[in-house]
Amino acid sequence: MFKTRLNWFGHSDKEFDLRYWVDTQFWNGKGPIFVYICGEWTCGPPSANTAYGLFAKELGALLVSLEHRYYGASQPFSDEEGGWTFSNLQYLNTTQAVKDIESFIHYIKHAYSSDSHQPKVMIIGGSYPGAVVAFYQAVATQVDAVWSSSGVVHAIEDFSNFDKDILEATHKSSETCSKVISRLTRRIDIVMTLGEQSEKEAMFKAFRINKPWNEVNYFDFMFYIADIFAVGVQYGGRTELCNML
What we know:
Helix content: 40-55%
Number of strands: 7
Structural class: alpha/beta
CATH class of the largest domain: Alpha Beta
Number of helices: 8
Shape: globular
CATH topology of the largest domain: Rossmann fold
Distance between the termini: 45 Å
CATH architecture of the largest domain: 3-Layer(aba) Sandwich
CATH superfamily of the largest domain: Alpha/Beta hydrolase fold, catalytic domain
Largest sheet: 5 strands, mixed
């Protein structure tokens, strides 16, 4: 665990723990440090079975991964302190996360430096963390290299191109695939909004949802449905998904 400040830009003295992992299997004491920045998910140990893992093996690097504030076990507030209340969530932002990284880099460099070796540091991120490390590069100078993969540095409020890309990808299997997705989504939407109680209960049973239908938020549920298809295509499962449909 690494202690960080809740608010880097205020007068609060509150601190909390960020989780991090260190993999020394390639570390030769003279190589660089590769710090993988996790994003909006529960983090875990750095993977040697990645591009940066292969470079670490070649260069004798130390592999490190750092969990993002408010994800996994890196929680600033306990349930007794209000957990994820609106006021507590004000500290979940990229500006605070960049300061977390800056402080952590100082800590990890000091921990693995010696009189004869001051290791160089590269920070790595993809997608949202790709944007985070790019923003870090713009405001901090403690690292020697930044690897931003698919860094989403331009926020677009109404971003429909992603869904369009998913649609066009399903057409590579067949236009039938996208039509079936559309029909399924529309049918589920109709059941959720206009269906009889028995229809909703039957659908929830099919999805193995143990909550009563009237305790499930409509918008959360429809987002979940949309994500089944979007994530299935985005992460390499398009052929399997469309064949199943």
